[in-house]
Amino acid sequence: MILRNPFALAAAGLTAAFIVILSGVLAWVSADSRRPGRFDTAFSLVNDRGEPVDQSLFNGRPSLVYFGYTHCPEVCPTTLFEVAGYLKALGADGASLKTYFFTIDPERDTPEVMHGYVTAFTDRITGVTGNPEEMKKVIDGWMIHAAKLPSEDGDYHMSHTTSLLLVGADGRLKGLLPYGATQEEALEKIRSTLL
Amino acid sequence: MKHSLLKIALVLLSLILPNLAVAHEFKIGEIEIGHPYARAMLPGAKVGGGYLKLTNNGADDRLIGVTTDRAGTVQLHEMKMDGGIMVMRELKQGVDLPANTTVELKPGGFHLMFMNVSRPFKEGETIKATLTFEKAGSVDVELAVGPPAGAAATHTDHAQ
Fold first, then answer.
1. Per the structure, how many domains does chain A have?
2. Do B42 and A85 touch (CB under 8 A)?
3. Residue B140 lies in a domain
4. Is the pLDDT of residue A33 over 60?
5. Residue A50 covered by a domain
6. How many CB atoms lie within 10 A of CB B95?
7. Do A25 and A55 sit in the same domain of this protein?
8. Residue A60: inside a domain
9. According to the model, what pLDDT value does residue A32 have?
């Protein structure tokens, strides 16, 4: 009855169209935005000893995961020094923890460069490098920001996310540790989320 | 008479001595360069950061360039944290030194970026460099190489 009213008909039509568009947008947005769930992107890279590694790195044991590069003057070495400090402070409690330093600059950070670099901090950090396209899968999979800033002489620097990722044994992100966190904050967060 | 001469000599000496004691200061014109230092570099690292304090007691000036034979190039950089992301910016125009101000190049902010370093800086050594200011001109300085980034902070933690 009501539908015979041309205005009501138009309104119903508009509403239907609106609902269709809205659900389309919702579906598109949810498909597009990754949630920090389980890391499930397959990748093929190498560690700092040149051995192949893949997504199984994030399974079985909890890990501290950091993305940086060796041409980084301040933030990366500071973070890795701090990570070495956490591992030392945790002692046996943290024996199950794995630590990964993924380079966002795989072109320059060869396994040899990575090996010399990570072992300067502790023998517990595994450097990961390899094919830039494969590395991008990991960077994108963890929603890390990494961008090259070219300079005039053909050289470049990188802007990047500085948080340390706390990844559970199930491959899910359990928390983030911001740059500059105190050791107490860090240890408490690592203990409560990973151990 | 001899005594007063001695006194004058002592006074003069005492005026000079503090400057000798604080050997780690350099000056050009009205610009003082305080405690220039660099971080020891880690194995595999090709770049190093340098820091210093610039006190400009004169008119507006600008630090426009740095050279050293220990690095291919030296750039002036600004590091900023932007919501968990570190953003590095090259200061192509140099570092502004407005009249009568102190500008500190320190970790987490402005810094010298030594690029293409073939012999990594080692803790304890000194790096000779030349700073060039737009108006004041050039001055040779020596950067003391301290511990690598992070190591100093860890040290402080121990002390607490």
1. 2
2. no
3. yes
4. no
5. yes
6. 19
7. no
8. yes
9. 54
Q: What is the rounded distance in angstroms from the CA atom of residue B125 to the CA atom of residue B119?
A: 12
Q: pTM of the predicted model, to two decimals?
A: 0.78
Say how many CB pairs under 8 Å bridge A and B. 101
Interface contact flag, B88 A159, Cβ < 8 Å: yes
**Is A11 in the same domain as A61?**
no
Pick from B43, B49, B53: nearest CA to B113 = B49
Range of the domain at B127: 26-148
Q: Min CA distance, B84 vs chain A (Å)?
A: 6
Provide the domain count of chain B: 1
Counting as low any pLDDT under 70, the low residues of chain B are 1-3, 6, 9-23, 151-160
Confidence at residue B60, expressed as pLDDT on a 0 to 100 scale: 97
Range of weakest confidence among A24-28, A30-34, A75-79, B113-117: A30-34
Same domain (yes/no): A27, A48: no
Q: Is residue B129 domain-resident?
A: yes
CATH number of the domain to which A124 belongs: 3.40.30.10
Same domain, A25 and A85: no
Q: What's the CATH code of the domain at B104?
A: 2.60.40.1890
Contact B142, B36 (CB under 8 A): yes
What is the structure's pLDDT at B18?
47
Whether residue A38 is contained in a domain is answered as no
Residues A6-15 have pLDDT tens digits of 777 777 777 8
| A37: in domain | no
* Residue A4 confidence (pLDDT) above 70: no
Which residues, in sequence order, are bridge partners of residue A166? A64, A175
Any chain B CB within 8 A of the CB of A78? Answer: yes
User: Cβ B42–A158 below 8 Å, yes or no?
Assistant: no
Q: Which structural domain, as residue segments, surrounds residue A7? A: 2-32
The Cα of B2 is separated from the nearest Cα of chain A by a number of Å equal to: 57
Are A73 and A15 in the same domain? no
Question: What is the ipTM, given to two decimal places?
Answer: 0.71
Which residues of chain B make contact with A113, given a CB cutoff of 8 A? 44
At residue A187's C-alpha, the angle toward residues A183 and A191, to 5°, is: 175
Distance CA B128, CA B46 (A): 18
B150·A81 Cβ contact <8 A: yes
Q: Is A42 exposed, middle or buried (0-12, 13-18, 19+ CB in 10 A)?
A: exposed
For residues A101 and B75, give the distance between their C-alpha atoms in angstroms, rounded to a whole number: 26
Q: Tell me which residues of chain A, numbers 160 to 179, contact chain B at a CB-CB cutoff of 8 Å.
A: 160-163, 176, 178-179
Most confident of A21-25, A145-149, B15-19, B60-64: B60-64
